[in-house]
Give the backbone structure.
Amino acid sequence: MDYIIGIDVGTTSTKALLYDLDGKIYAKANKGYTLYQNVPDMAEEDPEDIFNATLQAIQEVVAKGIKDNGKVLAISWSAQQHSLIALDKDFKPLTRTLTWADNRAEKYAAEYKENGRGLAMYKRTGLPIHPMGPFYKLLWLKNEKRDVFDKAAYWVGIKEYIIWKYTNVLKEEISMAAATGLLNMKTAEWDEEALKETEVTQDQLPELVETTYKIQGIKSEYAKVMGVGEDVYFVMGATDGALSTIGVGAIETGVLAINIGTSAAVRSFVDEPQVDPKARLYCYPIMNGKYLVGGPINNGGIVFSWAHDALFGAEKETAKLLKKDSFDMLTEIAEKVPAGSNGLIFHPYLGGERAPLWDANARGSFFGLNRSHTRAHMIRAVLEGIVYNLYSVTLALKEVTGEPKAILAAGGFVQSALGRQMLADVYEHEVVIPDSYESGSLAAMFLAKMSLGLEDKLEDIKKYIGSEKKYEPDDATYERYRRLIPIYIRLSRELATEYKSIADYQREFPDAEN
Amino acid sequence: MDYIIGIDVGTTSTKALLYDLDGKIYAKANKGYTLYQNVPDMAEEDPEDIFNATLQAIQEVVAKGIKDNGKVLAISWSAQQHSLIALDKDFKPLTRTLTWADNRAEKYAAEYKENGRGLAMYKRTGLPIHPMGPFYKLLWLKNEKRDVFDKAAYWVGIKEYIIWKYTNVLKEEISMAAATGLLNMKTAEWDEEALKETEVTQDQLPELVETTYKIQGIKSEYAKVMGVGEDVYFVMGATDGALSTIGVGAIETGVLAINIGTSAAVRSFVDEPQVDPKARLYCYPIMNGKYLVGGPINNGGIVFSWAHDALFGAEKETAKLLKKDSFDMLTEIAEKVPAGSNGLIFHPYLGGERAPLWDANARGSFFGLNRSHTRAHMIRAVLEGIVYNLYSVTLALKEVTGEPKAILAAGGFVQSALGRQMLADVYEHEVVIPDSYESGSLAAMFLAKMSLGLEDKLEDIKKYIGSEKKYEPDDATYERYRRLIPIYIRLSRELATEYKSIADYQREFPDAEN
Ligand SMILES: Nc1ncnc2c1ncn2[C@@H]1O[C@H](COP(=O)(O)OP(=O)(O)OP(=O)(O)O)[C@@H](O)[C@H]1O
Ligand SMILES: Nc1ncnc2c1ncn2[C@@H]1O[C@H](COP(=O)(O)OP(=O)(O)O)[C@@H](O)[C@H]1O
């Protein structure tokens, strides 16, 4: 039997899934690694750690899932965006990988926002003005780490580096290249101005290829360890954002893909490059005639997890005794409170925010407290706040993509029926939840099939997605959200005036981060 | 031996204390009554209930405290302000007593705020523009309860009514009269304009007397029940606000009295009528050459009690097992968090607010949440928020009274060393905590002594106050509060723009008050 491995190099771990050619899953593996954050705003990972995680994850799914003499035809790659590694002329890393969460280039993003050049660059490249972008990381390195900058022979992302380690081929596919902010979104070539500003030359960057580009001939020692043939194809794949959108079947313009995992995102494909005049959304070319527009959101399920830990310590213990999932139990508690949480409104910006604010200083808040409110209202307000925030990003997206034709949602947060219904009620729109949970890996697998000539239309991924659940908005409920959301949005503006002062305070008093 | 009883007719209960002439306490009694709130914004009490509570409380302290043939020389009265009862020509109540917490006159207060007449009346009477004031209650009754209004032969407060029940004498002393908003603060006579606007005539109001005015000759049946002689003096006394200020020894201009009980207040005596151009403070004549300026605050310890119940259910049980006071335990938890609560700021307006906002729609909020915050930070932020709010009222008071010469604090909140130190740190000023906890009754007793010619200078109350504790601001701590308070104050303005919309939502969805 033939297999394809879809592998997703995430921020905290790498997941590999072993599929047969019909999309059935035979094995899963998950390998974590360390995020280095020992300096403020730093968020680095060791490329060798990540390489090893991919090796072990593949080894594990092969060992667990393949019986008799099955054969892995291809390994197809999904990965985190915005990572940056400097390599010397022998392709040896001069830095760890700077992840999307690394904010040390903040000063340069702020400068570019201030002087208008950020907006101009955004219009060329589709990268919002934010330190996550390799464009800004390069400005920071050029100005503040000149030694590394001067020694760098190549600049690559983590996926390119890993594929190079396996194959000795250094290429970059378009979606990942776009997320660097160095790619011109109209030509899908490296952008001359971006290169000039960062003082990076084309020959320091990988050659650009399509997402379905395949490489044959991996190093024999790695093939042996993983238990695959040396003739296995490596398919370039795409960014996790692009793939998880494809993987829920959101292919056409105006079909929204919502993902609420640890972080969250709202995305849609469009046929033409589309920029948001207020630079709240990214826009990256993904493949021929397909551009992905969307808003990346820091404060997704991680905020639910915070509330879970910070407010419900005792209940967590109770859940354990009941042999219940504690997130499920909190969701049950939240269900006992009326929609709208008795007018308690939560802004979920615990960790600063990308879309819709693009403000690293943003902080969370509860507003509207009266004496009727308890922790039960707080937990419901937290869930509602996460969804209001997604909705406010969607309002920006709608300005570009029009009214949504359909809304597809995935991620840990929609494991709960309450979360799914809340999406339908806040959006006042049917919400469809595909059954396949690992949408990124599924899409990676599908790209491999296209690459191998076994599929030819992106739309055909829908065959693999399987059954879906549908949630319709409830009249009585959305009436409440309709009243509260404008307050939520107006308050966002009011509160924003004090984000810098409070974040400065929190940074300045060292014990204030405990 | 001779005794004096100080009795305080509060909002939820009446407390009587039996003193000897040296101010030593021999017995205490406390009798509660019902607050009727069955209609939105209504807050009424039954005058007969309250009368009975006073009778029983006096009976109890006499029975418990007096040995042999001791004699009660006088019973001296403190009471809640702003209450209003309509009496018919036979002095029978036509209404229950409308307490200060009754907000049904809101529409009239709003109208007077809008059209500027509220400010003009405030400048004459010292009553802030708020439905608590009998002036506004009369406007409401006149317009919306015309039958009662037309039948009323007399308008009185609860203290006057009770004293009348005991003595058949209907008089009102100046401090209580001032709190109606019908008294001209400069002349200390009923204000012509206020009477014209409310269509109340002088002969419908009690005759005005001094706070030390005494009445002899109570009805024999009541004397018998209470166990006192028919020749006992009833001393008019004053408002609870005036007496608790005198009772901590804050007599001179610029000596601040802070009280944080269920509600809270910041007050100071001044020698001249003083109005706040922004009408944030009241100003009432109390006695010859003594005017009380201050801000009444709804959200005092009641907010700590809310946090205690709403956020710390499990810990309350733990405290019980430990045989610890659960408020003490929460204070201990709050002490484990650095001052400034890691930049978490709480606005305590759970129940609307009088000073400094005078906005019944105000609501509570937490601002500045990051992932480091837990319930421990929340409880500390709640305590700090209560104190920041008091401080912001004090800023308004300072505009009138100048820099404080001394700060004296009392009330349940300052039972904790943390609360006391927090006051010193936020105010950046020494805070003195008198030992005598029942400052209102003590001052009532002292007024009785003046009335009986046993004391003649108000300042001499200090002899009775006993020992004090002093708290000095801590450098490292107040630096933090100095950073956070301006953010707190600026945010107050930002948040205020959405109080009406959220309060409207909470009123409109009936289940949203559970
Ligand atoms: N151990 C404690 N430490 C600190 N604060 C406490 C403690 N126990 C109670 N409190 C606070 O004190 C408040 C009650 O204070 P107090 O007994 O002075 O109120 P009160 O007389 O009802 O109030 P008011 O003066 O407004 O009529 C409670 O609401 C609570 O928040
Ligand atoms: N039972 C549950 N119900 C609702 N939400 C959940 C549940 N369990 C976990 N979550 C949320 O899902 C988030 C993780 O989602 P997931 O998609 O697994 O994340 P990742 O982005 O790391 O892959 C958690 O942060 C948590 O808030």
